Automatic annotation (TrEMBL):
Protein name (Swiss-Prot/TrEMBL): GDSL esterase/lipase EXL3
InterPro entries named among the record's database cross-references: GDSL, GDSL_lipolytic_enzyme, Lipase_GDSL_AS, SGNH_hydro_sf, SGNH_plant_lipase-like
Single biological process term from Gene Ontology: lipid metabolic process
Organism: Dipteronia sinensis
Family indicated by similarity: Belongs to the 'GDSL' lipolytic enzyme family.
A cellular-component GO term for this protein: extracellular region
């Protein structure tokens, strides 16, 4: 829906505001109003906006201090102190304020028409990752997506549903739990694969999933890379070793880099071979590493520990109202808990995404 600012032409003050609005922001607003009817996300806790509230899993965060900087200080099931990437994306694109979780029983037709998140905290490209904590696997999320499509058809008809799907912006975020937890931290796959063959397996799973949502109508897809997983406070705590001069667990970072290189190549191939597809690889590895190595550049003060509790191991149910010493100013931290970035870090990453990649879909 177009901003009310554009409707009030008679007001001089509004004209001045419009005149001085940056070209980047104006372009984003135009894309949101004219190109993307909806935003739809799949993946893990980075983009789970509350689905795990309705899933029988230990991977939950619908309790304080999660959400302490969210609207009304409410813990909504977002693994953060505030908003997560899908929220910033739909807001910046002018679609709506927040991206709701698909499993929310209070969703209305208008919510479905403008997009939802199917993501589930603790999931991954490897189905074993999800099974360990009873999170929604990508196969489960795909089934929900098919159910969602049928609901759209009942609301708006098959033709409009097809238009919504082909014009919407899709996001896929996974691999962190596979690489950091399943492979390196808990060693549940390293007996079966070395990191090279495991990254091949993950990229194969990612490729299959991307082709499946393409067959169901997705055309504009952003796929997030793995972050520098060896720099996560939880990874460093669990490793219990002397780290490199960069303060990170090098073999885990190397696993991220290897996976990312292969994922990027696979996405280029899919983008070239699938008719009318716009599939973009979004590198979050290097921006996050830069935040860790140059915190002053971004206004961060603490990048080694999370805000919640000691910030070294607390995450999900371990980050709770009994966590001692939780910081008062999360915006000065890169990490909210020992695994997830803060709202401010996410906002920086989303700005980078829109600035560098939104033109791919215009």
């Amino acid at each position: 829906m177009q901003s009310p600012l554009f409707k009030i032409f008679g007001w001089f003050s509004v004209s001045i505001l419009v005149l001085f609005r940056s070209s980047t922001e104006a372009a984003i607003k135009q894309v949101g109003n004219n190109t993307f009817p909806a935003v739809i996300f799949f993946g893990d806790s980075i983009v789970d906006t509350g689905n795990n509230n309705y899933v029988l899993t230990v991977a939950k965060c619908n309790f304080p201090p999660y959400g302490k900087d969210f609207i009304g200080g409410k813990a909504t099931g977002r693994f953060c102190n505030g908003k997560v990437p899908p929220d910033f994306i739909v807001e910046k694109l002018g679609i709506k304020e927040l991206l709701p979780p698909y499993l929310d029983p209070n969703l209305k037709p208008k919510d479905l028409l403008t997009g939802v998140s199917f993501a589930s905290g603790a999931s991954g490209y490897d189905s074993l990752t999800s099974e360990l904590v009873s999170a929604l696997s990508l196969d489960d999320q795909l089934k929900l997506f098919k159910e969602y499509i049928e609901k759209l058809k009942k609301i708006s008809g098959e033709e409009r549903t097809n238009t919504i799907l082909t014009k919407s912006l899709f996001g896929v975020v996974a691999s962190s739990n596979d690489i950091a937890n399943l492979y390196y931290n808990f060693h549940l796959r390293d007996w079966q694969y070395n990191i090279s063959t495991y990254s091949d397996f993950l990229v194969g799973s990612a490729s299959t999933f991307l082709q499946e949502i393409y067959e169901l109508g997705a055309r504009n897809i952003i796929v997030f890379s793995a972050p520098p997983l060896g720099c996560l406070p939880s990874t460093k705590t669990l490793a219990g070793e002397i780290f490199s001069r960069k303060g990170c667990v090098e073999n885990c970072n190397q696993g991220s880099e290897l996976f990312n290189k292969k994922l990027s190549a696979e996405i280029d191939k899919l983008d070239s071979n699938l008719p009318h597809a716009n599939i973009v690889y979004f590198d979050i590895y290097n921006p996050m590493l830069d935040m860790m190595q140059n915190p002053n550049k971004y206004g961060f003060e603490i990048v080694d520990n999370g805000c919640c509790g000691t910030g070294t191991f607390e995450a999900s149910f371990l980050c709770n109202s009994f966590s001692l010493n939780t910081c008062t100013n999360a915006s000065s931290y890169l990490f909210w808990d020992s695994y997830h970035p803060t709202e401010r870090a996410y906002k920086i990453l989303v700005s980078e995404l829109l600035k560098k990649y939104i033109h791919n879909f215009v």
